[in-house]
C-alpha cells in the first residue's frame, strides 16, 4: 500500500507539476517542461542511488532502515510547503481587468462586481468591448496573446488585431484596436505576440529549489523502504512483497 501511494504521488507530480509551474509562475510550456526535467531527473535518480548507498555504507538493520524511512518521509512532508508559493494572476482583459480602450457607456455596469446569490461577489466576465465588437470573435478559439500594455488577451480577435506575421517562430500581431502601445512607450515593438506576458513575481527560483529537495527526500526513502519490506517477509513470499 505504501508503495502504491508513493507511486500515485510520483505519477501525479509527473502529470501535473509542469502545468502547475506554467500557470502559477507565468512561463511558457517549454520552460515548464524543462524545469520539470531539471527537478525530477537529478533528484529522483540521485535520491534513489543515495538511499541504497546509505544502507550499504552504514550497514543498517531492518529497524534502523524503517527509522530512516520515517525521517526522510517527515522531511519530505515538511517541504511540501513549496506549493504554498504562488504568484498573482496576470491582468486578463475582460476577465480580471477592463480593456484600456473601453468606451461603451454601460461598460462600468457590466464590469462591476456581481453577486452569485449567496452574498459573495465576483468580477463579471465581459470579453466583448467597443474595440472588438465588430470582429465577430468566438470564445471557442482560445489563443492567448500578450499585448504591449502587459495585458493578456483571450485571442488576437478579442484584442482587435488585424495583421499577423511570423518572426523566428513567434507570431507577431499589429494594428490591434484594443491595445494602445503608445501609452507605454514601446517604440517599434509589435502590438502583441503569442508569448507569455512577463510576471513580476520572483518566487520561481524558491519553488524550484524547495521542490528539488522535496523530490530528493521522496526518492531517498524508496530503496530503504523496498529493502525493509524484503527483509520483513519470508524467503518464499518475497516475490509478493
Blueprint (SSEs and pairs):
Layout: H1 2-25, H2 29-58, H3 62-78, H4 107-110, E1 113-115, E2 121-123, E3 145-147, E4 152-153, E5 161-167, E6 170-176, E7 192-193, H5 204-220, H6 222-232
Domain Kazal-like: 125-180
Membrane topology: Multi-pass membrane protein
Subcellular location: Cell membrane
What is this entry, summarized?
The protein is of the alpha+beta class. It is 43% helix and 11% strand.
Report on the architecture of this protein.
The chain has 6 helices and 7 strands, in the order H-H-H-H-E-E-E-E-E-E-E-H-H. It has 2 domains: 2-87 and 201-240, no CATH class; 107-193, no CATH class. The chain has helices at residues 2-25, 29-58, 62-78, 107-110, 204-220, 222-232, and strands spanning 113-115, 121-123, 145-147, 152-153, 161-167, 170-176, 192-193. The chain is 43% helix and 11% strand. Mean pLDDT is 79; it is low at 103-124. Helix 2 runs parallel beside helix 5 and helix 3 packs antiparallel against helix 5 (204-220). It has 241 residues and is of the alpha+beta class.
Q: What percent of residues adopt helix (DSSP H or I)?
A: 40-55%
Q: What's the assembly state of these chains? A: single chain
Which percent band covers the strand fraction? 5-15%
Q: Major sheet, described briefly?
A: 5 strands, antiparallel
Number of helices: 6
Structural class: alpha+beta
Distance linking N and C termini: 10 Å
Q: Shape, please?
A: elongated
Protein name: Solute carrier organic anion transporter family member 4A1
Main location: membrane
InterPro entries: Kazal_dom, Kazal_dom_sf, MFS_trans_sf, OATP
Subcellular location: Cell membrane
